[in-house]
Design brief:
The complex is a heterodimer of chains A (337) and B (388). In chain A, strand 1 (73-76) and strand 2 form a beta hairpin. Chain A folds into two domains: 28-76; 87-335, MetI-like (MetI-like fold, Orthogonal Bundle). Chain A is mainly alpha-helical. Chain A has twelve helices and two strands, in the order H-H-H-E-E-H-H-H-H-H-H-H-H-H. By secondary structure, chain B is mainly alpha-helical. Chain B folds into two domains: 31-119, no CATH class; 149-363, MetI-like fold, CATH 1.10.3720. In chain B, 72% of the residues lie in helices and 0% in strands. Chain B has helices at 2-11, 31-55, 61-83, 86-124, 149-180, 185-196, 200-214, 221-245, 249-257, 262-273, 275-290, 294-299, 318-326, 331-358, 368-387. In chain B, helix 5 runs parallel beside helix 8, helix 8 runs antiparallel to helix 11 (275-290) and helix 13 runs antiparallel to helix 14. The longest helix of chain B is centred in the first third of the chain and has 39 residues, at 86-124. Chain B is extended and about 80 Å long. The chains are: A mainly alpha (337), B mainly alpha (388).
C-alpha cells in the first residue's frame, strides 16, 4: 500500500504489448510470392502425378493378381499370366543391403578423413573428387562393374564361398569350381551399387562433421584427448543425425538403382539369399529389361511393370522422406543445405 | 642436447635478438611415424605373399590385396604398440584406416575414368567416330565405320530441353524456400530431399504412363527430356537453396532499407550475389542429367541414324547408345560402347570443370579474373583522378 502514492502520480501506463507490425506486401510482391509458391507446389504436383498415373496404369495388374502380387515368385506376363514381386523385391533389397554394409563404414570413413585428417590443401580437391564420383553416370559404373570388376572379383567370391560358406549368406550350392557360377551375382551388383552410394553418404556426412562446433573440439583436446578421442566424443555425436539421414538417402538411391544392376545381373525369378550364386534381380532391372516387350499400352505386361514400379516408388519415397526428416530435425542438420 | 644448450649459454652471454616469430608447425609428420607405416606395409606384403600365394589355398587378385590390408593393419598395430601407449595406438590405427578411405575413393574414381578412357581410345582414335551415326554400320563393319554422332546430337538436345524445364522451376522453388518460407517450406524441403534420390527409372515410367500412353505423344527426344527434367528438378532445387541460404542477410536488409520491394531485392540483390553458386548448381545438375540412362530408356526409343528433331521420332542419347552397344556380342561393338563412354565422361568432365571454374565459391567471393578486372578498373579511375 505504501507504493500507492507514487503510482498515482505516474500516468496510467498500459501493459507492455509488442506493436503489431503489418507489412502490407505490394501487388508486385504478391504476384511474385504467388509465382514462387506455385513453383514450390509443383514439386508436390509432380509427386502426386507420378502416384496417380502409376496407380491408374497398375490397376489392371493389381485387379488380376490381387494380394498374390505381393506373394508370387514369378514373372510370367504373357498368357498363363502369373506374376508377383515376391522374388524381385527381396533381391533388390538384398543388393541394397550389401551396398549399405560396404558403403556406410567406407562413406563415413572418407567423410571423417576429409573433414578431420586430410591436410587443408587436399580438402577441396577431395571434395571435388567425391562430387565427381557422384556425377559419374551409372552406365559407366555398369560398364566398369561388368568388364573390369567382375573378372577380378570372382576369385574373391569363390574364396568367400569356400571359406565362409558356413555363414548362410555365403553358402554356395552350385559347383564351386566353375567361375561362371559366381558371375552376375547379387554380391557383385551390391559392390557396384555401394560405390554409387558412397559419394552420397560421404558428402552429406562431411557437411555435418565439418560443422561440429570448434569450441567443443578444443575442449576435448584441452582435456587431453587424442584426435580419435575428440572425434568419438564430439564430432560423431554431433553428426549422428546427419549421418543417419545420409544413410537413409543412400539406401533410397541403392533401392532405386537401375542401369548398373541391369547390366551386371542375369535375371532370376526365384528368390534365394545365397548372395554369391549366379543370378539376381530387382524391380528396376525387371522394368528396364521387360518394358520393350509390350508395345500395346493396354497389355497386362505393361500394367504389371507399372505396378512393380509403384511399389518401388512408394518404398523409396518412404525411406527417403524418413531420411530427409531425420536430417531436418537433428541438431547437426539445422544449418546444412 | 643438454651440453649444446650449456655451451650456447657460455658462448653467448648476451642473447642475440630473438628470431622473427615463426609459426610452430604442429601437424608435422614424424620420421618414426612414416617409417612405421612403410615398415608395416612392406612386412605385410611379404607375409601376405608367403601365406596367400604359397601356404594357403587362396587365389584371386582382389583377395590378395584385401588380406594384405588386414595384415597391414595388424602389423601396424603391433609396431605402434612397441612405441606408444594404448590411446595413441588406437589413434594411429584409426588415422591409417581413414586415410586408406581417402586413397580408396581416389583410386576408384581414377580407375573408372581411366579404364573407360583407355578402352574407349581404340574407337575414338578414328575421328569419324564423332561424326558418323550407326546407320551405315553392320555387325561385321570395321572399327572405323559407325559412331556416336547421332547420340551426341540427341544428348545435347535432350539435356538443353531438360535444363530449360528444370532450372527455372527448381531455382524458383529454391527462392521460395529461402526467401518466402512459411508453413509450406518444411514439407516442400522434405519432399525435395526425398525426390533427389527418386529411383531414376520411375521418372521414365511416369513419363511413359502420363505423356506417352495417356497424352499420346510418340516416343521422342522431347519425352526423354521431360523425364530428365523430373530427375534434375529436385537436384537443382536442393543445390540452389543451399547457395541462396548463405547470401548474407545484411545485403537483403540494405536493399529493403533503400525501399526495395521483395521481388526487386531477390532479382537484383540475392540472385546476382549467388550467381556463381547458382551456375555451379545448374551445371552439376546437368552433369547428373547427361548421364542418366534409365529415364531415357523407356521413352526415347532407339534410333541408329541422325534425328535432329527432338519432337518427332525416336532419338538416341549417349548413355542409351552405350547401353545397347555393350549388350551386343561383337568385340567392335563393345569397343564402340567404350568409345561412347569416352565421349560421355569427357562431357561430364567438361561440365564439372566449368562448375568448378565459375564458382563453388561463397557468394561475393571473386574469382581471380574478376578480382584482376576490378583492380584494373580501380587503377584506371585512380589514374584519371590524378590526371584531372
Amino acid at each position: 500500500m505504501a507504493s500507492e502514492g507514487p503510482t498515482r502520480v505516474m500516468p496510467a501506463v498500459p501493459e507492455d504489448r509488442p506493436r503489431v507490425i503489418v507489412a502490407q506486401p505490394s501487388t508486385g510482391d504478391k504476384i511474385f510470392r504467388g509465382v514462387l509458391r506455385a513453383s514450390a507446389l509443383s514439386v508436390f504436383i509432380i509427386t502426386g502425378l507420378i502416384l496417380v498415373f502409376l496407380i491408374i496404369r497398375a490397376l489392371k495388374a493389381f485387379k488380376f493378381m490381387g494380394f498374390g502380387f505381393l506373394t508370387t515368385q514369378s514373372w510370367i506376363t504373357i498368357d498363363p499370366q502369373h506374376f508377383g514381386i515376391a522374388a524381385i523385391l527381396p533381391f533388390g533389397v538384398m543388393i541394397a543391403l550389401i551396398a549399405m554394409v560396404i558403403a556406410i563404414p567406407t562413406g563415413i570413413g572418407i567423410a571423417l578423413y576429409i573433414s578431420e585428417y586430410a591436410p587443408t590443401s587436399l580438402q577441396r580437391p577431395l571434395i571435388s573428387l567425391i562430387d565427381l564420383m557422384a556425377a559419374i553416370p551409372s552406365i559407366i559404373y555398369g560398364l566398369w562393374g561388368l568388364l573390369f570388376l567382375e573378372p577380378r572379383i570372382l576369385g574373391f567370391e569363390s574364396w568367400l564361398g569356400r571359406h565362409l560358406g558356413f555363414i548362410p549368406f555365403f553358402n554356395f550350392r552350385l559347383s564351386s569350381s566353375l567361375a561362371s557360377n559366381y558371375a552376375n551375382s547379387t554380391f557383385i551388383a551390391g559392390v557396384v551399387v555401394s560405390l554409387m552410394v558412397i559419394p552420397i553418404i560421404t558428402s552429406l556426412s562431411r557437411q555435418v562433421f565439418s560443422q561440429a562446433p570448434q569450441g567443443e573440439r578444443e575442449g576435448a583436446y584441452a582435456l587431453g584427448s587424442t584426435r580419435w578421442g575428440m572425434i568419438r566424443s564430439v564430432v560423431l555425436p554431433f553428426g549422428k543425425g546427419g549421418v543417419i539421414g545420409a544413410t537413409m538417402l543412400g539406401l533410397g538411391r541403392a533401392l532405386g538403382e537401375t542401369i548398373a544392376i541391369t547390366l551386371i545381373i542375369v535375371p532370376v525369378f526365384h528368390f534365394n539369399f545365397h548372395v554369391l550364386e549366379f543370378g539376381s534381380n530387382s524391380i528396376a532391372a525387371t522394368i528396364a529389361l521387360d518394358f520393350a516387350s509390350f508395345p500395346d499400352p493396354g497389355s497386362m505386361g505393361l500394367s504389371a511393370l507399372m505396378a512393380a514400379g509403384l511399389v518401388l516408388f512408394a518404398m523409396t519415397l518412404i525411406v527417403n522422406m524418413l531420411g530427409a526428416m531425420v536430417i531436418g530435425r537433428s541438431r547437426s542438420g539445422l544449418s546444412t543445405g | 642436447m643438454a651440453t649444446e644448450t650449456s655451451t650456447e649459454q657460455v658462448a653467448a652471454p648476451e642473447p642475440p635478438a630473438p628470431p622473427a616469430d615463426a609459426p610452430l608447425r604442429i601437424r608435422r609428420v614424424s620420421a618414426e611415424g612414416t617409417l612405421s607405416v612403410l615398415g608395416a606395409a612392406g612386412a605385410a606384403l611379404a607375409l601376405d605373399w608367403v601365406l596367400y600365394e604359397r601356404v594357403l589355398p587362396f587365389t584371386g587378385v582382389l583377395g590378395f590385396w584385401v588380406s594384405w590390408y588386414v595384415l597391414f593393419l595388424v602389423l601396424y598395430g603391433g609396431i605402434a604398440a612397441l612405441q606408444w601407449d594404448r590411446m595413441a595406438v588406437r589413434d594411429r590405427i584409426v588415422q591409417v584406416t581413414l586415410t586408406t578411405g581417402g586413397v580408396l575413393a581416389t583410386a576408384i574414381v581414377v580407375d573408372q575414368v581411366g579404364y573407360t578412357l583407355v578402352r574407349g581410345f581404340t574407337a575414338v582414335k578414328h575421328l569419324t567416330f564423332f561424326t558418323q551415326s550407326m546407320a551405315a554400320e553392320g555387325p561385321l563393319s570395321p572399327q572405323d565405320v559407325g559412331g556416336v554422332g547421332h547420340a551426341l546430337v540427341g544428348t545435347l538436345e535432350q539435356i538443353t530441353l531438360a535444363t530449360a524445364f528444370a532450372v527455372p522451376l527448381g531455382v524458383m522453388a529454391a527462392v521460395f524456400l529461402s526467401e518466402v518460407g512459411g508453413r509450406l517450406a518444411r514439407p516442400v524441403r522434405t519432399l525435395v530431399d526425398a525426390m533427389t534420390a527418386l529411383p531414376d527409372i520411375i521418372s521414365g515410367l511416369f513419363i511413359l504412363a502420363f505423356v506417352v500412353l495417356t497424352l499420346g505423344l510418340q516416343k521422342c527426344g522431347f519425352a526423354a527430356s521431360l523425364a530428365l527434367g523430373v530427375t534434375m528438378l529436385p537436384i537443382v532445387c536442393r543445390a540452389s537453396e543451399a547457395v541462396l541460404r548463405i547470401v548474407p542477410g545484411t545485403l537483403r536488409e540494405a536493399s529493403y532499407a533503400l525501399g526495395g520491394s521483395q521481388w526487386r531485392t531477390v532479382l537484383s540483390v540475392v540472385l546476382p550475389t549467388a550467381r556463381s553458386g547458382l551456375s555451379t548448381a545448374v551445371v552439376l545438375a546437368m552433369a547428373r542429367g547427361i548421364g542418366e540412362t534409365a529415364p531415357v530408356l523407356l521413352v526415347a526409343g532407339y534410333a541408329r541414324g541422325f534425328n535432329w528433331n527432338p519432337f518427332a521420332n525416336w532419338q538416341t542419347s549417349l548413355p542409351l547408345y552405350i547401353y545397347y552397344e555393350i549388350q551386343l556380342p561383337q568385340v567392335t561393338e563393345k569397343i564402340r560402347a567404350f568409345g561412347g563412354g569416352f565421349a560421355l565422361i569427357i562431357l561430364v568432365l567438361i561440365l564439372f570443370t566449368i562448375a568448378r571454374r565459375i564458382g563453388g565459391a561463397a557468394p561475393g567471393q571473386l574469382t581471380r579474373r574478376q578480382r584482376r578486372r576490378i583492380e584494373r578498373e580501380s587503377r584506371r579511375t585512380a589514374a584519371e583522378r590524378t590526371r584531372a
